[in-house]
Structure to design on (78 residues):
């Protein structure tokens, strides 16, 4: 499905035209009746399903994770 619209008219209806394009409609922009550009939907990648517990036991947190950092860290002293 396709919609054709003059550039001058498209300026006032951009939000509406973007919604149309996102919904799968090609929107062709014309200048004096000559096609010059097209708004098309960007295909969204299908995310792989998440698998709970897939990497269980591979991540650890240091015992001192929540301890304050030393002043040398903040002051840049070595």
């Amino acid at each position: 499905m396709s919609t054709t619209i003059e550039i001058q008219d498209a300026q006032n209806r951009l939000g509406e035209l973007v919604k149309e394009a996102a919904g799968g409609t090609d929107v062709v922009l014309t200048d004096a009746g000559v096609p010059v550009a097209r708004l098309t939907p960007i295909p969204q990648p299908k995310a792989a399903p998440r698998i709970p517990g897939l990497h269980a036991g591979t991540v650890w947190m240091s015992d001192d994770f929540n301890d304050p950092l030393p002043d040398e860290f903040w002051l840049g002293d070595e």
